[in-house]
Design brief:
Layout lengths: L3 E5 L4 E5 L2 H4 L9 E4 L6 H10 L3 E5 L1 H16 L23 E5 L1 E3 L3 E2 L5 E4 H11 L11 E4 L5 H10 L6 E5 L8 H12 L2 E7 L2 E6 L20 H10 L3 E3 L5 E3 L1
Parallel strand pairs: 3-4, 3-9, 4-5, 6-8, 9-10
Antiparallel strand pairs: 1-2, 7-8, 10-12, 11-12, 13-14
Protein backbone atom coordinates (compact mmCIF):
# COMPACT_ATOMS: atom_id res chain seq x y z
CA UNK A 1 0.00 0.00 0.00
CA UNK A 2 1.20 3.52 -0.79
CA UNK A 3 1.81 5.74 2.25
CA UNK A 4 -0.02 9.07 1.99
CA UNK A 5 0.74 12.33 3.81
CA UNK A 6 -0.93 15.77 3.63
CA UNK A 7 0.81 18.68 1.92
CA UNK A 8 -0.13 22.34 1.79
CA UNK A 9 -1.91 24.26 4.51
CA UNK A 10 -3.81 22.90 7.51
CA UNK A 11 -6.93 24.63 6.22
CA UNK A 12 -6.68 23.06 2.75
CA UNK A 13 -4.49 19.93 2.84
CA UNK A 14 -3.89 17.84 -0.25
CA UNK A 15 -3.05 14.12 -0.12
CA UNK A 16 0.35 13.20 -1.52
CA UNK A 17 2.57 10.15 -1.56
CA UNK A 18 5.14 10.04 1.21
CA UNK A 19 8.70 10.80 0.04
CA UNK A 20 7.86 11.89 -3.52
CA UNK A 21 11.59 12.43 -4.12
CA UNK A 22 12.16 8.67 -3.83
CA UNK A 23 9.16 7.94 -6.06
CA UNK A 24 10.47 10.23 -8.82
CA UNK A 25 14.19 9.84 -8.07
CA UNK A 26 15.07 8.62 -11.57
CA UNK A 27 13.42 11.67 -13.14
CA UNK A 28 14.33 14.19 -10.44
CA UNK A 29 14.45 17.72 -11.78
CA UNK A 30 13.10 16.47 -15.12
CA UNK A 31 9.81 15.39 -13.56
CA UNK A 32 7.00 16.77 -15.72
CA UNK A 33 4.66 18.58 -13.30
CA UNK A 34 1.64 20.48 -14.61
CA UNK A 35 -0.78 22.34 -12.35
CA UNK A 36 -4.12 23.52 -13.72
CA UNK A 37 -6.40 25.86 -11.80
CA UNK A 38 -5.76 27.49 -8.43
CA UNK A 39 -6.90 26.62 -4.93
CA UNK A 40 -7.04 29.00 -1.99
CA UNK A 41 -3.27 28.71 -1.42
CA UNK A 42 -0.12 28.62 -3.55
CA UNK A 43 1.65 26.44 -0.97
CA UNK A 44 0.85 22.90 -2.28
CA UNK A 45 2.26 23.60 -5.77
CA UNK A 46 5.39 25.29 -4.45
CA UNK A 47 5.91 22.68 -1.72
CA UNK A 48 5.88 19.86 -4.22
CA UNK A 49 8.17 21.64 -6.67
CA UNK A 50 10.47 22.57 -3.80
CA UNK A 51 10.78 18.91 -2.80
CA UNK A 52 11.58 17.66 -6.29
CA UNK A 53 13.43 20.69 -7.62
CA UNK A 54 11.46 20.39 -10.84
CA UNK A 55 9.77 23.17 -12.82
CA UNK A 56 6.03 23.85 -12.47
CA UNK A 57 4.00 24.48 -15.58
CA UNK A 58 1.12 26.51 -14.15
CA UNK A 59 -1.87 26.81 -16.48
CA UNK A 60 -4.74 28.97 -15.30
CA UNK A 61 -7.37 31.48 -16.30
CA UNK A 62 -5.99 34.99 -16.97
CA UNK A 63 -6.88 36.54 -13.58
CA UNK A 64 -5.38 33.62 -11.66
CA UNK A 65 -2.33 33.44 -13.94
CA UNK A 66 -1.59 37.06 -13.00
CA UNK A 67 -1.26 35.97 -9.34
CA UNK A 68 1.31 33.37 -10.32
CA UNK A 69 3.30 35.92 -12.28
CA UNK A 70 3.32 37.99 -9.09
CA UNK A 71 4.64 34.93 -7.24
CA UNK A 72 7.38 34.59 -9.83
CA UNK A 73 8.48 38.16 -9.15
CA UNK A 74 8.46 37.53 -5.40
CA UNK A 75 10.66 34.47 -5.88
CA UNK A 76 13.15 36.77 -7.62
CA UNK A 77 13.16 39.64 -5.14
CA UNK A 78 12.34 37.78 -1.90
CA UNK A 79 10.64 40.97 -0.73
CA UNK A 80 7.12 41.20 0.64
CA UNK A 81 5.71 44.71 0.31
CA UNK A 82 2.45 46.37 1.38
CA UNK A 83 0.83 45.62 -1.96
CA UNK A 84 1.69 41.89 -1.85
CA UNK A 85 -1.53 39.88 -1.70
CA UNK A 86 -2.23 37.27 0.98
CA UNK A 87 -2.27 34.60 -1.70
CA UNK A 88 1.26 35.47 -2.80
CA UNK A 89 2.95 36.07 0.58
CA UNK A 90 3.60 32.39 1.49
CA UNK A 91 5.81 32.06 -1.60
CA UNK A 92 8.49 34.11 0.19
CA UNK A 93 9.12 31.09 2.42
CA UNK A 94 9.47 28.61 -0.44
CA UNK A 95 12.74 27.91 -2.22
CA UNK A 96 11.70 27.52 -5.81
CA UNK A 97 13.84 29.02 -8.55
CA UNK A 98 11.96 31.76 -10.46
CA UNK A 99 12.91 30.10 -13.75
CA UNK A 100 11.19 26.93 -12.52
CA UNK A 101 7.79 28.60 -12.43
CA UNK A 102 6.36 28.75 -15.95
CA UNK A 103 2.99 30.47 -16.17
CA UNK A 104 0.58 29.88 -19.04
CA UNK A 105 -2.64 31.88 -19.28
CA UNK A 106 -5.57 29.79 -20.44
CA UNK A 107 -6.82 26.23 -20.11
CA UNK A 108 -5.65 22.89 -21.59
CA UNK A 109 -8.06 21.28 -24.03
CA UNK A 110 -8.56 19.40 -27.27
CA UNK A 111 -7.15 21.98 -29.66
CA UNK A 112 -5.43 25.35 -29.50
CA UNK A 113 -7.83 28.26 -29.91
CA UNK A 114 -10.24 30.18 -27.72
CA UNK A 115 -13.44 29.44 -25.83
CA UNK A 116 -16.60 31.43 -26.44
CA UNK A 117 -15.62 33.88 -23.68
CA UNK A 118 -12.22 34.56 -25.29
CA UNK A 119 -10.30 32.35 -22.82
CA UNK A 120 -7.20 30.93 -24.55
CA UNK A 121 -7.04 27.15 -25.00
CA UNK A 122 -3.84 25.17 -25.59
CA UNK A 123 -3.96 21.57 -26.77
CA UNK A 124 -2.43 19.10 -24.34
CA UNK A 125 0.01 17.81 -26.95
CA UNK A 126 1.22 21.30 -27.79
CA UNK A 127 1.63 22.24 -24.11
CA UNK A 128 3.54 19.08 -23.26
CA UNK A 129 5.77 19.13 -26.33
CA UNK A 130 6.76 22.68 -25.47
CA UNK A 131 7.35 21.87 -21.79
CA UNK A 132 9.27 18.64 -22.44
CA UNK A 133 11.51 20.53 -24.88
CA UNK A 134 12.07 23.10 -22.13
CA UNK A 135 13.24 20.24 -19.88
CA UNK A 136 15.56 18.98 -22.64
CA UNK A 137 13.74 15.65 -22.84
CA UNK A 138 14.15 13.57 -26.01
CA UNK A 139 11.28 13.76 -28.48
CA UNK A 140 10.29 10.17 -27.74
CA UNK A 141 9.86 10.96 -24.03
CA UNK A 142 6.79 13.16 -24.27
CA UNK A 143 5.04 12.58 -20.96
CA UNK A 144 3.19 14.00 -17.98
CA UNK A 145 4.28 12.65 -14.59
CA UNK A 146 2.04 14.65 -12.25
CA UNK A 147 -1.14 16.59 -12.91
CA UNK A 148 -2.61 18.73 -10.16
CA UNK A 149 -6.09 19.87 -11.15
CA UNK A 150 -7.88 22.33 -8.92
CA UNK A 151 -11.43 23.60 -9.11
CA UNK A 152 -12.09 25.19 -12.48
CA UNK A 153 -15.20 25.71 -14.64
CA UNK A 154 -13.50 23.60 -17.32
CA UNK A 155 -12.51 20.62 -15.15
CA UNK A 156 -14.35 18.02 -17.20
CA UNK A 157 -12.93 19.28 -20.50
CA UNK A 158 -9.40 19.30 -19.09
CA UNK A 159 -9.65 15.64 -18.08
CA UNK A 160 -11.54 14.35 -21.11
CA UNK A 161 -9.14 16.01 -23.54
CA UNK A 162 -6.24 14.53 -21.56
CA UNK A 163 -7.64 10.99 -21.96
CA UNK A 164 -8.38 11.53 -25.64
CA UNK A 165 -4.77 12.64 -26.19
CA UNK A 166 -3.65 9.28 -24.77
CA UNK A 167 -1.82 10.90 -21.84
CA UNK A 168 -1.75 9.04 -18.52
CA UNK A 169 0.05 10.86 -15.67
CA UNK A 170 1.57 8.67 -12.96
CA UNK A 171 -0.13 10.77 -10.29
CA UNK A 172 -3.36 12.75 -10.47
CA UNK A 173 -4.19 15.19 -7.71
CA UNK A 174 -7.72 16.48 -8.24
CA UNK A 175 -9.76 18.96 -6.23
CA UNK A 176 -13.15 18.09 -7.64
CA UNK A 177 -15.64 20.91 -8.22
CA UNK A 178 -18.20 18.77 -6.37
CA UNK A 179 -18.05 15.39 -4.63
CA UNK A 180 -17.85 12.55 -7.19
CA UNK A 181 -20.83 10.78 -5.61
CA UNK A 182 -23.09 13.85 -5.59
CA UNK A 183 -23.18 14.96 -9.23
CA UNK A 184 -23.87 12.96 -12.39
CA UNK A 185 -21.19 14.62 -14.53
CA UNK A 186 -18.51 14.29 -11.85
CA UNK A 187 -19.59 10.72 -11.09
CA UNK A 188 -19.17 9.82 -14.76
CA UNK A 189 -15.78 11.53 -15.03
CA UNK A 190 -14.44 10.02 -11.79
CA UNK A 191 -15.76 6.58 -12.75
CA UNK A 192 -14.21 6.79 -16.23
CA UNK A 193 -10.92 7.77 -14.62
CA UNK A 194 -10.83 4.62 -12.48
CA UNK A 195 -12.00 2.44 -15.37
CA UNK A 196 -9.03 3.73 -17.39
CA UNK A 197 -6.62 2.39 -14.80
CA UNK A 198 -6.39 4.84 -11.89
CA UNK A 199 -6.69 3.78 -8.25
CA UNK A 200 -7.87 6.22 -5.60
CA UNK A 201 -5.14 6.02 -2.94
CA UNK A 202 -5.91 8.98 -0.70
CA UNK A 203 -8.20 11.91 -0.11
CA UNK A 204 -8.49 15.00 2.06
CA UNK A 205 -11.99 16.45 1.94
CA UNK A 206 -12.81 16.88 -1.74
CA UNK A 207 -9.15 16.61 -2.80
CA UNK A 208 -8.33 13.18 -4.24
CA UNK A 209 -5.05 11.47 -5.13
CA UNK A 210 -5.05 8.84 -7.89
CA UNK A 211 -2.24 6.48 -8.87
CA UNK A 212 -1.97 4.95 -12.34
CA UNK A 213 -1.90 1.14 -12.21
CA UNK A 214 -2.13 0.65 -16.01
CA UNK A 215 -5.16 -1.67 -15.95
CA UNK A 216 -7.79 -0.59 -18.48
CA UNK A 217 -10.97 -2.31 -17.31
CA UNK A 218 -12.71 -1.46 -20.57
CA UNK A 219 -10.40 -3.97 -22.25
CA UNK A 220 -11.48 -6.87 -20.02
CA UNK A 221 -14.59 -7.60 -22.09
CA UNK A 222 -15.96 -7.28 -25.61
CA UNK A 223 -18.14 -4.30 -26.48
CA UNK A 224 -19.32 -5.98 -29.69
CA UNK A 225 -21.48 -8.74 -28.16
CA UNK A 226 -25.22 -8.37 -28.71
CA UNK A 227 -27.05 -8.35 -25.36
CA UNK A 228 -29.44 -11.21 -24.58
CA UNK A 229 -30.92 -9.75 -21.41
CA UNK A 230 -29.96 -6.05 -21.77
CA UNK A 231 -26.84 -6.87 -19.76
CA UNK A 232 -23.70 -4.80 -19.45
CA UNK A 233 -20.70 -6.69 -20.93
CA UNK A 234 -18.36 -5.77 -18.09
CA UNK A 235 -20.84 -6.84 -15.40
CA UNK A 236 -21.63 -10.03 -17.32
CA UNK A 237 -17.96 -11.00 -17.31
CA UNK A 238 -17.74 -10.29 -13.60
CA UNK A 239 -20.85 -12.34 -12.81
CA UNK A 240 -19.65 -15.27 -14.95
CA UNK A 241 -16.39 -15.24 -13.03
CA UNK A 242 -18.12 -15.21 -9.64
CA UNK A 243 -21.08 -17.45 -10.57
CA UNK A 244 -20.11 -19.87 -13.36
CA UNK A 245 -23.01 -20.61 -15.70
CA UNK A 246 -24.71 -17.30 -14.99
CA UNK A 247 -25.24 -14.14 -17.00
CA UNK A 248 -26.07 -10.61 -15.94
CA UNK A 249 -29.49 -9.34 -16.94
CA UNK A 250 -29.38 -6.03 -15.14
CA UNK A 251 -26.81 -4.05 -13.26
CA UNK A 252 -25.85 -6.59 -10.62
CA UNK A 253 -28.36 -9.48 -10.56
CA UNK A 254 -27.25 -12.80 -12.12
CA UNK A 255 -29.82 -14.88 -14.00
CA UNK A 256 -29.37 -18.59 -14.71
CA UNK A 257 -29.10 -19.28 -18.43
Amino acid sequence: MISIVPIGTKEEPYPMIQNPWEFFSEKGTKTVFVSVGTGSSCVPDLEFAETLGCPILKVDLPDEAAKWNEIKELLKTRKVVDSTSEFVKPAARKWVLPKNLIVESGVPGYATGTLENAIPVRSWMELLKEHCTRLALPEDQLRLDILKLDKTPHQNMVLQSLWDAGIRPSLLLIHWNVSPDSDVITTTTAGHLQMLGYALVGKEGNRYLYYYIDVNYYETCSWETVAKHFENPLMSNLVRTLVPGSSNSGVVFPVQE
